[in-house]
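Methods, example record. To illustrate the input and output format used throughout this study, we show the complete record for Peptidase M16. The sequence lines were provided to the predictor; the line carrying structure tokens was produced by it.
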Amino acid sequence: MIKKIYSAAFLALALLCAMPAQAQQSTPPPAGPAPKIELGKYEHFTLKNGLKVYVVENHKQPVVSMSLVLDRDPILEGDKAGYVQAAGQMMRTGTTNRTKDQFDEQVDFIGADLGFSSTGFNASSLKKHLPTLVDLTTDALLNPKFTQEELDKIKKQMKASLAQSKDNPDAIASRTRNMVLYGKDHPYGEVMTEETVDKITLQDIQDYYNTYYKPNIGYLAVVGDVTPKEMKKLLKKSFAKWEKGEVKDINFELPKAPEKTQVVIVDRPSAVQSSLVLTNPADLKPGAEDAVAASLMNNILGGGMDSRLFQNLRETHGYTYGAYSSINNDEILGRFNASANVRNAVTDSAVVEFMNELTKIRSERVSDEELRDAKAYIMGSFGRGLENPATVAVYAINTARYGLPEDYYANYLKKVEAVTADDVQRVAQKYINPDKMYVLAVGNASEIADKLKKFDKDDNQITYYNAEGNKVDRKAMGVPAGLTADKVIADYIKAIGGKANIEKLKDVSITSNATIQGMTLVFKQQQKGNDKFAMQVLMNNNPMQRVIINGDKGKMEAPMQGVNKELTADELKTQKLEANLFPALQYDKLGIKTKLTGVEDVNGTEAYAVEVTQPNGQKATHYFAKDTGLRLKEVNNLETPQGIITQTKTYGNYKEVNGVKFPYVTETVVGPQTIKAEVQTVEVNKNLSDDTFKL
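The corresponding predicted structure is encoded as:
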């Protein structure tokens, strides 16, 4: 196991954010007979403005919920990708009658929930507050006030989320999968970036609202302690001013499956495992004749812990914590998907087993036992879903939206019972295409590319993309002849001021401020020479963490975690690397090995990727700009009790102090959390007392 003393930023995150517990594997009970299901009742009416309303009475609790769905076609957003999402969020930022704060206070006062998206809203409250809830919902729906201030806030949040996803292998895999399946010129395949978000204007938000927030494309589900008569009277009065309008249909050319299976790689030099996705388009519409059989087929193949993929890749071979598949229906074009996160060393072996299972379910009939268990699971899930009255409303709306037979859901269990092993094999052959699919891997290309070539049927020509969804020429992004890691690091040292200037810094003190989850943190780092370090993380002037290194001894304190320990020899070496402001000067002394692995795009800048390996095997990848030589990013894979977690640091806004450049902005991302630290002061040669570093 890799031993690691975490950085101050990581520990700060760990102290504030509880890690999710791992799911426990359990054995499902034996399949029983199919339950007798009776669909609940609903009443439907249409308002004069065209809004279709479905009311499901349920008087068990004094609660009412409303859910609006606007049935529009997908939108190609182009160079402003993200404006549709932003428009949905802007619907909840105040009205012409209430400021955002006033609106929020009134929603909270009645204990309600009210949220909007680009395709509708969800609202719920106690029955006694229903008139107020409808009034608030109507105000947001009919009188939204879009302001530049709120749009700027939303754009900032969207860009922060994008920054976090750039180093999330699963997010990268999902984004790249959609792009290769549908293409960038299709709504399902276009990629939102910081650049497209920056281009979103207030007029874009207003235009979206004016065009698509129309009642005649709306389906409203109302569920709870209310009668259809009550609801009709309330809505007719409240929604009377919501005017209908023409919403044009948009047609898109259907993307096609590749002629031959293609391998796609997103190179992540620091990755210790690969995020694998095998996918192909599947022309499966909602409520299609094959939909039930396809659902059963997928359940057997990769629907859960008892499925073939899970049992093969995890239980038999130990390649992954879990392997799954899905088949999605869609009005335009669905997809088949199989995925797992596997170790680099077994990436090709995992693909072999995926292909074996995909081929097997197409070429052989499933067993009677597998089919029986899958039917029991689907029937049970269907029955449990009906325990929620809202499900009845959803089924009613789906029937109308997709033109399904009126008895589609009433006869659903009969459809499940009627599926045969031959049907399962037939839909597998129809919707899974091992010879015409994409094999996508987000991982360390230098370790996995050669192994994956054999799966590419297009002359073994692997296609490469970067994390932003752009196709890249790996050869063009390769390392120039004769360039080495030592040369890149030497250029970096020169870029920040040179060894001579760095050695003139006898001591350095840096104070930075950061905010996480609304709390302000203060980072204080002090260094004297090459063997004395002190690092503190404070919150409200209270110490959260303190690390001190003095020569060949070190200590770490984390009061909130009850940690007070001396560092081991290995931990000391690791922490020296973390704490040292100029670690590149200490690589030889600390036994650090470096390797130039390639070139990668870092936020639009080409950068050399240098793998840094410590004596204990801990690896990190540092990225240095080709043009300036400055370090732009560092990626560490941290071993924790919850498994490997990726920590990414980005550096920017370099400023010179006494002839040496320091990054004044450091952004640390660990999982879903981000700490952005901004330097407040850098002080050098202040003759720090040795008492500062006393253990």
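Annotations derived from this record:
The radius of gyration is 29 Å.
The longest strand covers residues 643-657.
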